[in-house]
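Could you join me in thinking about how sequence relates to backbone shape in a protein? We need material for that, and I hope you will provide a protein of your own picking. Once you have written the record down, we can walk along the chain together:

…
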Amino acid sequence: MNICEIEEDELLDIKFSEDPDKYFKYYHEIMNSNLSILRIYYSICESNNLKKKIKARINNNYYCDCAFHRADDLPFRIVDEKKFWGCYGCGYSGSIITLISKFYDISIEESLELLYSYLTNEIAELNEKQIDIFKEMFQYYNSPSIDKLFLESQRKTELLDERIKRYIKTNNFCLEEEKIADRLCCSKKHVKKIIHKSL
């Protein structure tokens, strides 16, 4: 499912909520804010003792372990700039709003209220369960350790780029992009980008 389809589905859910105008407002303010889905995901994992690694960063896509299933061979992708995520393993995807809703098993409306409360610094209207979730979601949001993880993921990506370049040179540009991607366990799109830079 692509980002436009995800957005349409979520807006459709809001359309049938008790107060669509209020929730549409929340949705647009959240999606246009500087909230980081990656930081929220990290904070959720840390708060729940889920040791989920950021494996690599390619452009503005971060590849992590999935919080919804155990296998780590099929990565969980986060597009931080657009506040969207998707897992190649379990097939789930959505925005920052759906991530909260799915992880904590709460409604889209409750998820919107939580995120909007963070933007407005006002948690008085949240119920007890939401307040507990709010604390978990933002407990590690500004942790220095996440900045370290970002740097490590960037370093891993740079090492992968070097491996691709070496592999291309060793094989005199003869191998197909798909074969290189399979052998180095990365995306065909990323291999293609490195090839074009190397030409």
In short: Residues 148-198 form one domain. The longest strand covers residues 54-58. The chain has a mean pLDDT of 80.
